[in-house]
Amino acid sequence: MKIVMAIIKPFKLEEVRDALTAIGVHGLTVTEVKGYGRQKGHTEIYRGAEYAVSFLPKIKIEVAIASDQVDKTIDAITSAAKTGQIGDGKIFVINLDHAVRIRTGEADAAAL
Amino acid sequence: MTFKRPTPAGWAVLAIGALCAVGFVDAAIAQTAAPAADAAAAAPAAAAAVPNKGDTAWMLVSSALVLMMSIPGLALFYGGLVRTKNMASVLTQVFAIVSMVGVVWTLYGYSLAFSDGGSMTPWIGGLTKAFMHGIDSNSTAATFSNGVVIPELSYFVFQMTFAMITPALIVGAFAERIKFSAVMLFILLWVTFIYFPIAHWVWYVAAPDDVAAAAKALAAAADGAAKTAAQAKLDEVTGAVGWLAGAGALDFAGGTVVHINAGIAGLVGALIIGKRTGYGKDLMAPHSLTMTMIGASLLWVGWFGFNAGSNLEANGVTALAFVNTMVATAGAALSWLLSEWIVKGKPSLLGICSGAVAGLVAVTPASGFAGPIGALVLGLVVSPVCLFFVSTVKNALGYDDALDVFGVHCIGGIIGALGTGILVNPALGGVGITDYTNITGNNAGTYDFVAQMISQGKAVGATLLWSGIGSAILYKLVDIIVGLRPTVEEEREGLDISDHGERAYNM
Question: Residues A27-45: pLDDT tens digits?
Fold first, then answer.
């Protein structure tokens, strides 16, 4: 089992969700995050005060999937979240040792 | 939950307190032994005058409008500009100041500002009207028109709202880094020793109708003995005025008393208290420009009560002050937006809101004296200057006037005060020197640029000095008694939690 964690542009969330649903991934967790990367930030000016805002708002999604679904999932996220501009985000894949569905107590593959 | 009724002992304490208060008032009256200085009583013509219903209604509505400027107007304008962790602190400070000054004004503030002070009259009023002694629904106060009066209670409450908002303006300068107890103690001392005297200097004229009559007599008198006698009479009646009013300074609605006064006190506070922890390093962007926009808009609306209400009647000059308040503000909002667009590259919401406030500040002393085109020019001019101060000057000097009380209120107030001296000129569409302002130097129906600018300069300089130096002493005193600053940990956590034990937002 794997966790696919993707950092994407906020306005791409719906497209990514649709793409994941289309390949049969029916659950994901979304977090509003801020991050810093090659996109850098922007400058905000309030009266005389100029602030370099380095951390830009992004969306982090996490999906837990069976190992054989990883490539399909990455393809779906990549194609849906891509704009070709700096700041499109990144995808990380992490090993998942164990999973439990709280309501039924089902474990691992049955819990996904 | 238990609720304790006052015990018999408690009632006794209250009764003793009330008795002491009455004794205090009587003693004060005996000491001052002032001639009946009430405008209405002193002027024979006005003794029979009855308040006009329209004037009375307008003054009460204006008072409510000025209260709305403070809460929620100013509170939201300032609140939106601080970080979320200090939002409740700013809102509480403004609300508490308004409430405290309302009490103080009733107990002794009105008396110190607007009663006869005997031999001290040029500097400060007496205590003859403390605890609202002698003021009932039949008392009247003079207006700017000879023989026209309004209920003194309406004048009392109108002036009260000015005393409420002025100290509330100061808190913007040291926002996010002062203890609540220090704010309350400082403001109590500040209104007592700074605001009430300055309001008295500028606005106290015991019997404006007498001054006008004496000035007319002087103008009509032939040379020689008649002229000497008329001059002597004028000198006599002008003895019973605040010294800046006597110097011929024009301040229609409070450019010096309110804005320069609060602005310089704010700057001194920002300097003495020091910068916010993390200033210049941490992100201190406004947490809600939405709130700030709502606040600025409420200020604009409320300011019609402030400026047009300052005419004390509902007539043509009231309409002039209303229109001036509208056009100067529109001009200033636009000119800040455009200046920022040109200089910084983007037109900003905070910019247009700041411009509107700067325009309101600048037009305040001029509102009943300038013509609408003069007011428009004043508005267009004030914003670029204030923008220069809040960006370039503040950054160059490095002081942390958190919400730009000095840059907007003091600088805008000075431009307005000096601009008033220019724009009152009938040749520029102003109303000219009318008889009630004719006290020394400038005679009714005449306009002398140099004399007027000297009068305006005196008012500005005196306010800067008294408020600047006086505030510095009071800050030091408060620092000794309760301490001005919270600890660095408390400041980092936010004053909402450390001072008030609550958050503005629970989301």
Answer: 999 999 999 988 888 889 9
